[in-house]
Amino acid sequence: MEKFEARQFTARYNKIMLYTFFAVLLVSALLIAIQTISEDKHEKSQLVEQFKTEAVAIDNLLVRVTVLLDMMQTNAQDFFQDPRISSSSYLKSLSMMGASGFGLDNIPAPYSTQDTGNLTGEGDIASFNRDVKSEGAAAFNLDLKNEIEMAFSLNSSFKSTRDSVPNAAWVYYTSKNKFINIYPWVPSSEFRFSEKLYKKEFYTLGVPEANPDKGTFWTSVYLDEAGKGIMVTAAKPVYRQQEFLGTVALDFTLEELGNYVKEFRPGQGALAIVNASGQLLAHSSLKLTDTSQFNNTLPEDIAAADINAACLDLNLEQLNQGYQYICYQLKNAPWRVIYIEKKPLFIMRIFSSIGIVFIVLLGSLGILLYVMKKITFREFIYPAASLVRHISKQGEDKSAPSRLIPVAWKPWFFKITETFQQNRNLINEIKQKNTELTDLNIALERYMPKFILVVSVEPGCGATTIGNYFAANLVKTGSDKKTVYMEYPNSHISSRFGFDDATRLHKHANGYDIWNDFDLGDVPQEAESSLLMTKILNQYANIVMQTSISGDVDKFIDIYLEPLFRYTKAIVVMTPNSDSTGEKTAAVVKSIQRHVRQDQTTLYTMLNRVSENSSLDPTVDFDIPYVADLPALSGATFTIPEPATKVINEIVERIERVHQICIFIPTTINIDQPFDSTLYVNRTMVFLGEKFGGATSSQAKGVWNSDSSGIVNEVVHLVVSYTTEDDLNRFANEVIDYIKVLKSELQQDAMALEINKKMILV
Length: 762
What we know:
The protein is of the alpha+beta class.
């Protein structure tokens, strides 16, 4: 027994207490981490909801713009269904400005600058105003006159639109016929129509070629020429029937959008509104210009392409450098609302969440564990260490020195002393019994009967024939060992072989016994199988039993066959010729598999064809073809048909070939010099194949301890054969002699041989 030292015991206890401290600390940290994760999920959910609310509010602002543009477009196009007959006071108040222009610098009463826009254009007002008399005037243009009247009729819509949109700067109608009506009113000296307006996006994006759907469109960000700052325009085309006339547009500054975004999570991230061209329309922390690009506001190593352009889902997405973003595609403008923030490190979130609480918890936990350690040591560890020391001394048959032991522990010491004394008294008796048991185990290991169970799924499977073939084969291959054939639990073999039912044992002409003795006395049905095997095993080394399934499969197997399975080497399930799907056979196999161990018993399925024209094609392990003119089995001598011989021999061979022999071929010589031993591997495979019928090889890695070179690593080749007990005994000495030759040729100190997993060094 290893010498006991007290410090070994207490050192382990100290480790346990230390590990306990760290375990509690780890659990606390884990709980805090779980809480932090939960808070993080909640914050993410809140962020998504806040962002959604903000994005919807921006969309609602824009929906007012689109609704008002729809209204102005509708009012303009409806005007032409019932145009004004007489000229309005607006039209009459138009006056020429210079040689080729006109405008509404003089607003007619009762209107004021709050009620109207200034309509300016190029051309001669005499061409569309009958009230203007001038010599040489151009022909009267009714269509132009109606369009100008339509533009004047929009003044009330312009006014209500500007009042409804807080950041609206200008509302106007631009005609392809060289005039514009712009609200609020400004004198023509400050702004008037010019053809360069036709190059602006509020017009070019509305022409039929650019806008065949006649829908609302939005311009890029630009700087207002009138000094009202950065703005963007929303516009729609106006048609008279199918004729494009111009566009109605609303300019509004980006100040209002900036107010929306600047209040969103200040100091935590950046909220931006971006158009399809990547221009910034609003940003929560930056002052914008007409050239501000969204890409320029992103953190380093993050590009605009990293952000999903579709913005289909309101989910937080991850970016490089620990950033995360969420975006939303507005429904009423081709713009995206994007929020980006730096996600704090998880460990920082934990410390920010717990703060001083964690430090107090850690200190309190340390003090608590220290106090518990002292108390536990005094009340348990020290007495336990003394008890272990006492056990150690008793194991060495020595007396432990007397120590101060707590009263509650003394009975344990007395009991240990008494137990060791009793143990010493029994040692000699145990040694004697151990010798007897060893001899008995050796005898039991040698006694390994070959037991083959043939199971008939239903009558007509050919199970009786196959069973007798097995018995005849076992007699042939092992004539020195007694073989018996029997049918259980119901036997009709006496009538089949022509002997009297009262005959308990019949000697068949092929050399095996036919057992017909089922007089087991008055025993329970469940015990019949075990009692029968006890009688059979005492007399026979080879046993073939045929059984026919009847009634409920599971119940039949549980009562009659389950006690037999522990002895069987092979179970052969006969497939009926009528079982075309194999369903009946599969059910029996499945029920048997519940009871047998695959490492002890091998289960086979076999089809014995009874008809020449059988087209049955089930999945079985062995298929015996139909044999014409096959004589019926009887008590006379019979010969196993050639088709069945091959199958019977293979199964018996598998049962008997259970012994393993393995030769280790090294890949080094002279201790650690690499060497190609392929030739010796092939030579060894041929040698074992000739002796035992076959061999296989594989590679493995191994180490061995050399007296001169220490630990040697090498690859070894394992050449393996499986053989019968008779062949193993017959050729064992030749194998040893062969290995001695290899050892000499390969210059080895020793070579390894393994028989049935037991290593032998030659």
